[in-house]
Amino acid sequence: MKHIPRKRFGQHFLVDQGVIEQIIDAIGPNKADQMIEIGPGMGAMTQPLLKKIGHLCVIELDKDLVRSLELNPLLKVVSSDVLKVRFDELALEIFEEKLSKNPAAQSTLIASPRREAAQLRIVGNLPYNISTPILFHLLDFVEVVQDQHFMLQKEVVQRMVANPATADFGRLSVMLQWRYEMISLLDVEPDSFDPPPRVRSAVVKMTPRSNPAQLDFGVFQNLVQVAFSQRRKLLRHTLGRWLEERQFDGEFDLKRRAEEVSVAQYISLAQAIKK
């Protein structure tokens, strides 16, 4: 039976084989990968990935699709809202299953299971209506991620990779660029999907930085949110008051708008602020 895409799940299934091949080539999957696909849908990327690596974990919310996916013995199916998935626990679960299926490897892998488990490769055509919450959710588990390849609304990708002093540079840019190196790989037209979305799409690669700046995440997150809360105003009207409340006595130019401050400058300010 043909699956009818559900608007409440933001379902737009990728059907363009040429685009699928480009994405798979960009990912470069191999049999050693511990890979997770978010929102496999009708399996457009699932099947090519399985041909490359022979095993795959998928996260799917739609119960009808879950029943179909569970028929494939090569898939580990997690039936859940991705925003409720703890990827650190899932990484260890996948790692332990890997050990159980390959006893010969236990002697070499068991010595440092957490290091080995922290190698998830995550891919997916993310639901556009909740793509930003998913990106921020995954930020909590970046320590167990090797890389991420996502299909997103092109506008979101532009914001992710934006440079300071541009219209696209914002909270998403700062928060993600602190922790990831990112590159937009290719644009995808609406007619590559069924049904076609009303927007253009793009594929982005996200690689966690090996030595990210150390800071208090809560302070950094709050700081950036306040700074961009009224981006048309100078920072003295927003961030200035926030800094005064924290008795910050360091130097920081507040006669700028939020998008005129670089990621490095936001990081330095967060590091200088006392809780």
Summary tags:
about 40% helix; about 280 residues; Rossmann fold; 12 helices; Helicase, Ruva Protein, domain 3; globular; alpha/beta; two-stranded antiparallel sheet; seven-stranded mixed sheet; 9 strands; 2 domains
Describe the structure.
There is one protein chain. The chain has 275 residues and is an alpha/beta fold. It has 2 domains: 7-208, Rossmann fold (3-Layer(aba) Sandwich), CATH 3.40.50.150; 217-272, rRNA adenine dimethylase, C-terminal domain (Helicase, Ruva Protein, domain 3, Orthogonal Bundle). Helices cover 38% and strands 19% of the residues. It has 12 helices and 9 strands. It has helices at 17-27, 46-53, 63-69, 87-101, 106-109, 113-117, 131-139, 154-161, 171-179, 217-227, 239-245, 263-272, and strands at 13-14, 34-38, 56-60, 75-79, 120-125, 145-153, 180-188, 193-194, 201-208. A 7-stranded mixed beta sheet has the order 4-3-2-5-6-9-7, with helices on both faces. Helix 2 links the parallel strand 2 and strand 3. Helix 9 (171-179) packs across helix 12 (263-272) and helix 10 packs across helix 12 (263-272). The chain is globular, with a radius of gyration of 21 Å. It starts with 12 loop residues before the first strand and ends with a helix. Mean pLDDT is 90; it is low at 5-10.
